[in-house]
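target protein:
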Amino acid sequence: MALGMLGLKVGMTQIFDADGKLAPVTVIELGPCNVLQIRTPERDKYSAIQLGFKDKARRKAIRAERGHVASEFVSKRRAGLKQAGVQVPEKADCEPQRYIREFRLEGPVPKLKFTEEDGSVKDEQVAIGDVITADQVFTVGQHIDVIGTSKGRGYGGVMKRHNFQGMPAAHGAKKVHRQPGSTASMASNRGSGRPKKGHLAAGQYGNAQITVRNLDVVKIDKDSNLLIIRGAVPGPNGGLIVVRPTNKKDIPTPEERAKAELAKRKGKGVKIEKKAK
């Protein structure tokens, strides 16, 4: 997994792209994110970068949340570690963070472009305490995956949750119009007396983690920390969103997409050839 970022869903709108086409887009307030920890194979047995998003008031943060980011935090446990000669991990020295997520890395810590005080831009490895913005990680036209939590709709029946047709609506069916019908557990799984795994039934609807893959970045507003992507993403406005570079293979090139759009206008089926491995 590559380095991603955390953000909040602002809402949907529509804009015109460079070709004059109207595009439905989702606006995401992405970052800035503080680098809280860097996991290394030598110490943690895996490589990852831990990011924090949105400052949390100190009066609302518990001691564990304050100590996770503060190097000068006073606690009995930290004092005991120092007396025992154990080195305390480096801290980011920032405010407590409301949202914290880790992004696994397959290789070494990536390098990003950081702007120095004199205005010069340098490529440096991500370090603890750095602040990452959207324009450092993503570029316009890049394909991304968006992870969010869908809207919770409570306990739903099979007609709303799984699009069941329901029972007959004529007078012969009495008070069973929206019922699922026979479960057929004994006949389909003879001898066990239990339904098969994956049986569709009424239950909790929504409030689940959903990943939408292979969306493309339309625009990046560096000053307002906004990422504008084509299409819809799961969750309500104000919900937490995780954005990462896509791990989907066989991504169509701009030429293939233009060819597919042209074939779609002519009424022909869209066919994208897979790339040779």
User: Anything to note?
Assistant: The CA atoms of residues 42 and 205 lie 42 Å apart.
